[in-house]
Design a protein that fits this description.
Elements: E1 2-4, H1 17-24, E2 25-26, E3 35-40, E4 45-50, E5 57-58, E6 74-80, E7 85-89, E8 92-96, E9 101-104, E10 111-115, E11 124-130, E12 138-140, E13 146-150, E14 159-165, E15 176-182, E16 188-189, E17 193-195, E18 199-206, E19 214-220, E20 223-229, E21 234-237, E22 244-247, E23 252-259, E24 268-270
Parallel strand pairs: 1-3
Antiparallel strand pairs: 2-21, 3-4, 4-11, 5-10, 6-9, 6-11, 7-8, 7-10, 9-12, 13-14, 14-15, 15-23, 16-22, 17-24, 18-21, 18-23, 19-20, 19-22
């Protein structure tokens, strides 16, 4: 499990591109037949990626989280960004199509991930946070949950947002999670940009052509930086950082948050004219 320690806005101006990428970009989440994991000390969030190809993968127990099993003191949201697959939780199997979301609550012991077709393996993206109580494991099919239509074609940010895990949907202790898909001709996500000073957020970009890239804006609104992001790469966005981007081609992204407030609209907006 890779460790990423917390940073503050004051650290960013002194970082070069390599350090920005090392601290905030997760490039290799999906390795065949392995579970990759990154522990960020921003809100104790863990990002994991699993791509079972030759057979099922059991979610391991990592010594860094000091638990007998992964979900002893944690919960997680999972989105499948690859081919069809399944997640078995303590013997109950849940089929996850591309874009489906599964919430796993505290206390789950045996979690096994598998692909339906090895030629088109599933790619399971997990976001986990500490949990103080147990909520039931719940599956949401692609396009389910609460659907919100946002943006405008005139500003190139028309998008469909699916809220899966949130205060008025699938219950959790801290995790808030969903999938946003840009409409044809729209390339900007999360514009106007915002921060939310009570939650860490993570983005995973997917359904992006291999040759295409996302220009992801991060940093304090008064001094932004950018990262060049490829398909199925993730961004760790601290509470003080904006998280917005534009793609060179169409794409979707998984957004996930953890912190003390689960209200989706709890954010502080910044007009593009006020950013630097």
């Amino acid at each position: 499990m890779e460790q990423r320690y917390a940073t503050s806005p004051e650290h960013v101006p002194g970082m070069d591109t390599a350090e920005l990428r090392r601290r905030y970009l997760v490039e290799n989440l999906f390795v065949d037949d392995e579970v990759a994991s990154v522990y960020t000390h921003h809100d104790r969030v863990v990002l994991l990626g699993a791509s079972p190809v030759t057979g099922p993968i059991s979610l391991p127990t990592f010594p860094e989280i000091r638990s007998e099993f992964f979900f002893e003191h944690r919960e997680a949201g999972i989105v499948n960004v690859g081919g069809p697959g399944a997640v078995a939780v303590d013997g109950t199997s849940y089929g996850l199509a591309h874009g489906a979301c599964l919430y796993i609550g505290r206390g789950a012991v045996d979690v096994v991930l598998s692909s339906s077709d090895p030629s088109e393996p599933a790619r399971f993206y997990l976001v986990s946070a500490p949990a103080h109580t147990t909520y039931p494991t719940t599956l949401v099919e692609p396009g389910g949950g609460i659907v919100r239509e946002l943006g405008d074609a005139l500003t190139s940010n028309r998008r469909t947002l699916n809220q899966y895990i949130h205060e008025n949907g699938v219950r959790s202790c801290q995790i808030v999670m969903g999938v946003t898909t840009l409409h044809p001709g729209s390339m900007w996500n999360t514009m106007p940009a915002h921060t939310h000073d009570r939650r860490t957020e993570a983005y995973l970009y997917f359904d992006l052509a291999p040759e295409a890239r996302i220009i992801h804006l991060m940093g304090h609104p008064s001094e932004t930086r950018h990262l060049i992001v490829a398909d199925q790469q993730a961004i760790i966005s601290p509470s003080w950082s904006v998280h917005s981007g534009v793609g060179s081609a169409s794409y979707s992204f998984v957004w996930a948050m953890a912190g003390e407030n689960q209200s989706f609209d709890d954010m502080d907006g910044f007009a593009i004219a006020d950013m630097r």
